[in-house]
Design brief:
The structure is a single chain. This protein starts with a strand and ends with a helix. By secondary structure, the protein is of the alpha/beta class. It has 4 helices and 5 strands. The protein has a 5-stranded mixed beta sheet with strand order 1-2-3-4-5, sandwiched between helices. About 25% of the residues are buried. About 40% of the residues lie in helices and about 25% in strands.
Length: about 120
Amino acid sequence: MLNEIPDLPPGVIGFELSGKLEGEDYRDVLLPAVEQAATSGGVRLVLVIPAFEGMSGGAVWQDMKMGAEQWRAWKRIAFVTDVEWMIHATAAFGWMTPGEVKHFPLGHRAEAIAWVAG
C-alpha cells in the first residue's frame, strides 16, 4: 500500500510504502500523481520504504510501464530506506533509471525531501 506523504515542497510528490505493493497502488495512487507532476514541470519523487514485503506481478508490470511512458519527465527520485538489498540495487542500477536517483537512510528523510526539491 502506498500512503501519500503530506506537506511536501511544491513540485515534490512522495509516498510511504507499507505491506505488499500491488498493481492497484501504481494504477490508482502513484500513476495519477506522476502524470500530474509530469505535466506540471517534472517528476520529483520521494519513496519511503521502512520495510519491503514484496510486490505483485501487476505491480512489476506497472512499474516498468510507468518509467517508459514518462521517461523525459523524471527529474529526481529519492529512495529512503534501510532495506539492504534496495540500497545495493539503487547503487548498481540507478543509472538505468530516468532522472537522478539517490538513496537516503530512513533517518535522513528530511534531507531526501530537500534533495528532491532542489
